[in-house]
Protein 1
Amino acid sequence: MHEFVSHHAMLAMALYLSIVFVGNIPVGNLRSRYRRLSRQWSRCLYIPLTISIILRHFLEISTHVIPFVIVAVFAGQFIGTRLNIFGEVESAEPEPEA
């Protein structure tokens, strides 16, 4: 017999993936401001992953959703790097005068 996922479980997974995706957009924007592979850059990547794992355990969502979570995290981070949410970062160096 086929195993069907209940409507409640599907709704919980969709809500969870939406939260993970939307929550990673501002973090991706913040990550774009740091030098690649620096400590801050890595924290912007691994802290949201850890939070999503804790949230998945709290909501009792199956481990079968993990590949979709990874896609949602990286998609949110990618979109966040492309958006200018917090405005331009002013550089500490003065612009050269012409």
Note: The chain has a mean pLDDT of 81.
Protein 2
Amino acid sequence: MPQYQIKTKVTRVERLSEENMRLTLEAPDIARVAKPGQFVMIKASLGSDPLLRRPFSIHQVDSAGHIQIYFKIFVFRFLFENFEIFIMSWHQDCYREN
């Protein structure tokens, strides 16, 4: 698969349940060659934090040039010496074809 590095727009954000989200991104070059289950590396900020991009599995692609990323939100809460630390991470569900 060819490699692309593009700046893109989030065209839709859907909260499917309390823990499940789906992002739709405008990425015609990637949508043309990608298949569900392949990965894209996503960086959400312009600065150096976070330093590395995060891998997300492609949930769906369409002929209009959009890719969809489906993920589950996990929030862990720890109490450590009177400080509350919140850690949020993403877990991707497996792609299921209907």
Note: The longest helix spans residues 28-33.
